[in-house]
Each structure stands twice: as C-alpha cells, then as structure tokens.
What does this fold into?
Amino acid sequence: MEFGDKIKELRTKNQLTQEQFGMKLNVTRQAVSNWENNRNLPDLEMLILISSVFHISLDELVLGGNDMNNMTEKLIKDGSKTRCAKFNLATTLIGTFLLFFGFACLFIKANSVEYIDTAGILHENFFLVPVGFLFIFTGTIAFVVIGVRFLVETIRNLRDNS
It folds into this structure.
C-alpha cells in the first residue's frame, strides 16, 4: 500500500476531511492533499506526530504492510544521505586540519633559525619539510576523495532521475 493511500485510509477511518485532518496536525489542507496524492511526503517529525495523534504505530504508518512503500524508500534514502553527509563533513574537517598542519610545518621550517653550536653540532628542524609535505599530500587526498564521491553521487542521481 502506498503511503498516500495509508494517510487517506487513516483520515477516512477517523471520519475527517482533509482540512480537519490538517488542523489536527497544524498543516494545511493542501499538505494533506499532497500526501494523499503522493506528491510530497511528510518529514520524520510529522510522522511521529501523526502516529501519536491517531494512535497508530510508526511501523504500521510507514510500512503499511509487508511491502516497501514510497515512504519507507524515502526514509532509507534520507538515512543514506545523512550518513554520506556526515562522512563528507568529517573528511572535509580532517583534510582541512591536515592541510593547515602541513602549511604550518613549512612555515615554521622557513622561519626557524639553523645554527651550529660550539660543539660543532648542527641544529636544524629538517624533519618539518617531509612532515609538512606529508600532511599537505594527505589533506589533498582527502579532498580528492570527497570530490570523487560527490561526482559519483551526482552521476548516480542524474541516472536514477532520468
């Protein structure tokens, strides 16, 4: 059963018009009509409100039976998008910090004083150059990964929508 059919069945079972149904949920009649005609789907908070107002379990409301309906697919897709967004945010932050530390290492190396003490030992921060380049390289790889994932996701969305 499609989600719109489930909403319509719930509304008619409670002998409510679209306007009355909308008033109970603080939404417009047009929103209810769009849900019933599968033009739009309510967000998760609205599903919880519908479930509590009409004393129906979320499983019954969302799943509506044993089949996967469009609401179930939307929730699964939204969950997947949320995980991807969190991964992209974490990768972006890590990449930014790596680039920052890489440039900081190179800046410190460029501005540090190298000297030979009285015992003839050279004091130099030679390790900062390879460490700085390693941080910069790793940060760049993080941004390339995000870019490739974005392109793949964009191409997949274009292919699914056409």
